[in-house]
């Protein structure tokens, strides 16, 4: 072997290096499959945690719906000062809560049409779930 002319590679070495390349490609593909499987498992874990948190939030919302009006009524009728003349009147003590309830139900809330996404908007989501407003399609409501 003369160092001035380079290294000689025999045909048997070519075959060996080809096998090494095949093994490296196989290992790389296997690692990519394992990475994709791990990503899927992480997504599954996050979805499970999210479902559990959604159930907890549903239970807290139910408790709030039950106890918030009761707290208001208790606070209104449990006032601790002497000249509370509303309770001496025949029907006057119902006027304030009734007025509050009437105003609360009569006030128009946000309409469904202004805040809901259309099918076309869901189809035109970009990377990261962002809406591309210049590509929004008119569609039916979900």
Write up this protein.
The protein is an all-alpha fold. The chain is built from four helices and no strands. Residues 112-116 and 131-142 have low confidence and may be disordered. It has helices at residues 11-77, 92-106, 112-115, 119-123. It has a domain at 11-78. The protein is rod-shaped and about 115 Å long.
- Which percent bin holds the helix content? 55-70%
Number of discrete helical segments: 4
Number of beta-strand segments: 0
Q: Look at the structure and give the mean pLDDT.
A: 76
Distance between the termini: 77 Å
Tell me the fraction of residues in β-strands, as a range.
under 5%
Please outline the major beta sheet.
none
Order of helices and strands: HHHH
Sum this structure up briefly:
The protein is an all-alpha fold and 142 residues long. The chain is built from four helices and no strands. The C terminus is likely disordered.
Topology of this protein?
Elements (H helix, E strand, L loop, with lengths): L10 H67 L14 H15 L5 H4 L3 H5 L19
